[in-house]
Design a protein that fits this description.
- There is one protein chain.
- The protein is built from eight helices and 15 strands.
- It is of the alpha+beta class and 311 residues long.
- It folds into two domains: 135 residues, Roll (2,3-Dihydroxybiphenyl 1,2-Dioxygenase, domain 1); 130 residues, Signal recognition particle alu RNA binding heterodimer, srp9/1 (2-Layer Sandwich).
- The relative contact order is 0.14.
């Protein structure tokens, strides 16, 4: 099987704007590509309520980082609980990206000089998606310039370190690269002992996490999920079992789950979009119908929905 370039891919949930948003983001960032798209079929229309042949997903990359955009309907909205953190090369680049993303959006922290960076800013774009931009002042220039940042607020406040320990225990090829905590010198009683900033790797990919420095409440939801691309049923079973421990059983459907920290994941086989977009329309329809009945993905039943049924 062909090696997967990126094994965990953020999925961005839109109402109907996925194609528009992907073209917008691709016009802003360097090294951007639109790879593929899948379309809804009549199968499962009572659930997804989308017009057949309308766009379901679009796979794309920005700065070489893979993402997936989904037209899922109006059910979930972006908030700052998960943002995309961008390491910019220089002041010219950060201003260009900031100004483009800010058009029709809102600045949460203005682009300015801060203690931790010569230039940093946090915004919500026109679709509500959060971005944090910072100039990379380090000698080490990261290959991965975009990564998800998990922001722990409200009932989840103080759980950033717990999340890092949990996820690095679940995924192989994982490590903690650094954790900076709030200390007495920060004069912040609310955040004392919490994670000011942390960086870690899962399956060789960079993630960040932080506890909020002030009282606010941005609950994690399905608007951004993390899609794990699995090589086989054994991998699907392994990640599903670990991530559903103490998770929300009501949030399990079609390979989706919500873990004990409230973060949403998709545990799916590599190439699932090819099954759902098979040129043989009847075969694609059967695969979609089979998937709609699943919680954890059964790869054999997905590939051979007539030969195997366990529903």
């Amino acid at each position: 099987m062909k090696e997967i370039k990126q094994k965990i891919v953020p999925c961005l949930w839109f109402d109907t704007e996925a194609e528009e948003a992907v073209k917008f983001y691709s016009s802003i960032f360097r090294n951007s590509k639109i790879h593929s798209q899948t379309r809804y079929s009549e199968a499962g229309q009572d659930i997804h309520q989308k017009e057949p042949v309308s766009i379901m997903t679009m796979a794309f990359e920005l700065e070489g980082y893979q993402l997936l955009a989904l037209n899922g309907g109006p059910h979930f909205k972006f908030n700052p609980s998960i943002s995309l953190f961008v390491m910019c090369r220089d002041e010219e680049e950060i201003k260009q990206v900031w100004n483009a993303l800010l058009e029709g959006g809102e600045a949460l922290l203005p682009l300015d000089t801060y203690d931790w960076s010569s230039k940093y800013g946090w915004l919500q774009d026109r679709y509500g998606l959060s971005w944090q931009l910072m100039i990379d002042d380090s000698e080490y220039k990261p290959e991965q310039r975009i990564c998800p940042l998990l922001f722990f607020t409200g009932d989840s406040h103080g759980k950033a370190e717990e999340s890092i320990k949990f996820y690095t225990s679940v995924f192989e090829d994982s490590k903690v690269e650094g954790i900076m905590k709030y200390e007495k010198e920060d004069n912040n009683e609310y955040a004392l002992g919490g994670v000011k900033h942390a960086q870690f790797q899962l399956r060789g990919e960079t993630f960040m996490a932080m506890d909020s420095g002030m009282e606010n409440d941005f609950p994690f939801n399905e608007a951004i999920s993390l899609m794990i691309q699995c090589e086989d049923q054994q991998e699907i079973d392994k990640y599903w079992e670990r991530l559903t421990e103490e998770g929300d059983p009501q949030a399990q459907q079609c390979g989706w789950l919500k873990d004990k920290l409230g973060i949403s994941w998709q545990v799916v086989p590599v190439g699932m979009e090819k099954l759902l977009n098979d040129p043989d329309k009847e075969k694609a329809k059967r695969a979609m119908e089979a998937m709609m009945k699943m919680k954890k993905i059964d790869l054999e039943a997905l590939e051979n929905p007539i030969q195997k049924s366990h529903f």
